[in-house]
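Please, structure for the following, as tokens.
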Amino acid sequence: MEIAVALSGGIDSAFTAHLLKEEGHRVWGITMVHHEGAWDTLERVKRVARTLGIPLEVADMREPFRQEVLTPFVRAYSQGLTPNPCPLCNRRVKLGILMNKALSLGAERMATGHYAQVAAGEEGPRLLKGVDTRKDQSYFLALLSREQLARLILPLGQKTRKEVEEKARELGLWEEGLKSSQEICFLQGHYTRLLERLGIDPGPGPLVDMEGRVLGTHKGYTHYTIGQRRGLGVATGEPLYVVRVIPQENKVVVGPAQALMAKRIRLAWVHWIHLPPGDPPWELKVRIRYRHQEAPALVMASGREITFLASQRAPTPGQLAVFYRDQEVMGGGEIIEVFN
């Protein structure tokens, strides 16, 4: 089989290509230059391809990435949301436009270094968690369509990160600086620097408690996200956390830890890979951010109304809520509203 591997310059995608070569497939690399900092990464990708002895295709994706990922990311922050651009990038760019390019160049399938699994199902491919529970990245693939999953190969889904690191060192694929990739690859420094370069800098505004009393002045609402404790610049008798951001008033609301607990969330939209069996409301487990341990919840028929069986800490508008049934990802959507 002819397989294109999306090479990032890291050891996960490099080891993915190695495994597929070992299995006897015709393997070549494809990488995307999607932001200005990616030109430096490109040199690492070229070294990886040379070490593996595979051809490399380079795709200039800066304009589609700007339209499909960067612009929505900036818009979300300007609206007081806290976006996670990676799931959107995977759906629209990496496993959307880039995958289509790879297929047009002769690849039958495309592989990535994500720690997740694709399995066959009666109604089409199923997306499953990776066996390494600490590294599982199924969350980032929750917006993929069945058609995309049908073309996707995930060789690391049954590997652990420790195993991959050890093998990568043995194969000469290890380089200093490749141990961990950035969570948001296109940011050079703090995200607020990007916003400021693009002219989004609301400036100082009132920092208030939940009763509306002014406690101090913040740096600008784009610097704050729900659950944040550090950098508030106020001292009271108890720890305070950001509990709400009001962009229209350039206002940041803080409160005690208990104010972060919420039992219901509403989603702006929902993407289903597969609908759960049975009649709604469905009892599923829902992950409200990547590092969150998914929690039991009742999901209504639309998928947009979710009630947790126990209150969860700091669900955040703009983040992705992902639905799980046992080990399977059923779908997900963007959190838009939170209720205590």
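The first strand starts at residue 2 and ends at 6. The chain has seven helices and 17 strands.
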